[in-house]
């Protein structure tokens, strides 16, 4: 255990970044938001996936993210540094529609049992408690790519039904996503600071796949606002290695997204 | 010859395809009263200006274009004169994206001239949107995201106006905004896409979106209506006196936006000669005939950035975020007094931002291409 770190020794942001980075495959194309998705994608490039291509919705194809100079948004000059190409946001997002893109990777204010994401309203959309900034490219990416979602595992974020579906998951489960006209794209994984969740093939409900070290099934149930499917076999993830954490902190030395 | 290698029979275009089914969304109906109010407000607006979205007559659009003087003529003027071309009630589109290549000086002047009842569209909206809201210039926003930037959290000013329903916020996906400008630029009434379906987003903008079964494949498609703004504010690195415009770095939606709009008000870091434009015509992204005004405004995106020239004035954006986070709309009003209505002119605004911070932002901006 000398080269790994238990949950208590690393922050939520570090844990989410490391766990997410590990499922990103080399040679794939990925739409990333800033924050955890950007950290995870950059970490994956430095570790096991040097040929992972990052796309930003501001209009960036294959940037090189320089350690210590992380962009504060997906739509500004720093993101274009050492990029291969800078198309318009319309054209870079249209790559999703054409089918070039494998994964979409983002966070969200709320997610529900079918993987629907909300980044528009807290409360009744007709009389909201909070008007959130909105979709940005979220709806585009979730409509057309395999989605990876990373977020802290809190009951108020993991709800039975989101207040508003900004970025579609499996809608009402079963075949409802496909029936609505979304014939491509899917919800792939939800990565939290407690566990990794996937989705049941039939019902499309969220299912527990693996727990992080030191986490019990009861912790997941307690922090989830719906009943996730609990399969017979639930795995345990490898804790973050000191190498992963070292590189992660090299990428974000000022704690822009890690704190 | 192997029979299996025979070419397939020629594809016959069957003109007698079934009429495609057009689906109309039911508007968002929960919590009815406020939504009705929102819709009514929207409908009033649609009546007041038929040029906002969907259903614009193509012949009207062409007629307005034909009526403009599209000849090669000089258009250099002051910021004040240029912004006087924006009319109350216009659909005004804004170039750039978030806090990048924002035509901040132009928006700043719109607020100073106290324009009213604007419909404003932009792909992603940052603090210039707060200024237009707090300045009372707009009652209808069309965008995909609205807050200064993700690292500063949710805009209290946006929340103040949108949660009360005082201003209508039509939220579209980022690509949708781009496709609607593109349809506008192509002179087409809509663009078919594969987004906005299934989610609740289509119900929020139900008056302006329809679905269709593709007449070729039968697949469901969302039809996004064209956006043809009355006026577009765009900031670029270089332009000549005629309005030929060149910009570096992320292109954003400028090229589509410029052609979709009835006219463009161009601000630029530098006016260059027409000879220089002609030596590198491949770099020209906006043609002169789309442009109605050219204004030379160095640092015209400040406190936002202009790629390769200057980064955002981060400490000022931190200051603004803190001011509005702590004081809400009062903070925004204080900001308007000090930084928008207060300054004598744009250079005085830059003075108030502070010389040393502008130098720091310039050094950071130039570093982008320095290795």
Q: What would your notes on this structure say?
A:
The complex is a heterodimer of chains A (259) and B (371). Chain A is of the alpha/beta class and 259 residues long. Chain A is built from 7 helices and 14 strands. Chain A has one domain: Glutaconate Coenzyme A-transferase (3-Layer(aba) Sandwich), CATH 3.40.1080. Chain A has helices at 12-22, 36-47, 89-98, 138-144, 176-179, 217-222, 242-251; strands at residues 29-32, 53-56, 60-61, 103-106, 110-112, 117-118, 121-122, 130-131, 146-150, 158-159, 186-191, 195-199, 206-211, 235-236. In chain A, the strands form 3 sheets. Chain A has a 9-stranded mixed sheet with strand order 3-2-1-4-9-11-12-13-14, sandwiched between helices. Chain A is globular and about 45 Å long. The N and C termini of chain B lie far apart (60 Å). In chain B, strands 2, 3, 4, 5, 9, 10, 11, 12 and 13 form a 9-stranded mixed sheet that branches. The longest helix of chain B has 17 residues, at 32-48. Chain B has one domain: 3-Layer(aba) Sandwich (Glutaconate Coenzyme A-transferase), CATH 3.40.1080.10. In chain B, 36% of the residues lie in helices and 17% in strands. Chain B is globular, with a radius of gyration of 22 Å. Chain B is α/β, with parallel strands linked by helices and 371 residues long. At the A-B interface, helix 3, strand 8 and helix 4 of A face helix 1, helix 6, helix 7 and strand 8 of B.
Alpha-beta content class of chain A = alpha/beta
User: What is the CA–CA distance across the termini of chain A?
Assistant: 25 Å
Main beta sheet strand tally, sense and closure of chain B:
9 strands, mixed
Q: How many structural domains of chain B?
A: 1
Helix content of chain B: 25-40%
Provide a count of the helices of chain B. Answer: 14
CATH topology grouping of chain B: Glutaconate Coenzyme A-transferase
| Secondary-structure element series of chain A | HEHEEHEEEEEHEEHEEEHEH
CATH class of chain A: Alpha Beta
User: How many distinct helices of chain A?
Assistant: 7
In CATH terms, what is the architecture of chain B? 3-Layer(aba) Sandwich
**What is the CA-based Rg of chain A, rounded?**
18 Å
> Biggest interface, and residues per chain?
A-B, 61 and 68 residues
CATH architecture of chain A: 3-Layer(aba) Sandwich
Low-pLDDT regions of chain B:
29-51
Widest beta sheet: strand line-up of chain A: 3-2-1-4-9-11-12-13-14
